[in-house]
From TrEMBL:
It comes from Micromonospora endophytica. One of its GO terms (biological process) is amino acid transport. InterPro entries: ABC_transp_permease, BCAA_transport_permease. It is a multi-pass membrane protein. This is Branched-chain amino acid ABC transporter permease. CDD domains: TM_PBP1_LivH_like.
Length: 203
């Protein structure tokens, strides 16, 4: 174990944890842009809203964590639904979508700065996962290992959803040929709106 775990291993674990964080955020953005065809520049606003909620609700216990996760899902659903409704009149007008959502991002950023201030905020992990585990001669935070596990679960879950589930097959059909999908009775607008909401939740 001592030969396997070294400073490079710890750095690699940190990289995996941070990379999975970026993956979860980017996966939502990919769904919104690649599947729904919405060129949103306000995706980070949903992440920002969730982060401030986490800072406000976290109390170091499981109750705070549960409230934070529930609030983040609600924000994602409402934000995604709002985004889908806002850009619906701008369908097939990508430049207008970019300009409109960029304006939303600027306005939201200023509002958050006014309400919460511009100072960096940090959220402590729940006390149950605030400790560390021994990896050779090193101590590694439990919450980072937990996040790696959650991130990997999201990777597997998204793959199954897109490639193996019936809903994923519908989404792929809408992406591949929207006209043919609509001709078969699929409500392509609803599918795209649902994808935008799902992408918002992932943020």
């Amino acid at each position: 174990m001592d030969g396997i775990v070294n400073p490079y291993t710890i750095t690699a674990l940190d990289g995996v944890a941070y990379g999975l964080l970026l993956f979860v955020i980017a996966a939502g953005m990919t769904l919104i842009v690649g599947v729904a065809g919405v060129f949103s520049m306000a995706h980070g606003t949903l992440y920002l809203a969730g982060a401030y909620l986490a800072w406000h609700l976290a109390d170091g216990g499981w109750t705070g964590l549960a409230l934070t996760l529930a609030a983040a899902v609600v924000v994602g659903v409402l934000g995604g639904a709002g985004l889908a409704a806002a850009v619906r009149p701008l369908t097939d007008r990508p430049l207008d979508q970019v300009l409109a959502t960029l304006g939303v991002a600027y306005i939201a950023g200023d509002l958050f700065s006014t309400v919460f201030g511009a100072e960096p905020r940090s959220v402590d992990p729940p006390r149950a996962v605030a400790g560390s585990v021994s990896l050779g001669d090193y101590q590694y935070p439990v919450y980072r290992l937990g996040f790696i596990a959650v991130g990997l679960a999201v990777v597997v879950g998204l793959f199954w959803f897109v490639e193996r589930s019936r809903v994923g097959a519908v989404v792929r059909a809408v992406v591949a040929d929207p006209g043919m999908a609509a001709a078969t009775g699929l409500r392509t607008g609803m599918v795209r709106a649902g994808v935008v909401v799902g992408g918002g939740v992932l943020a």
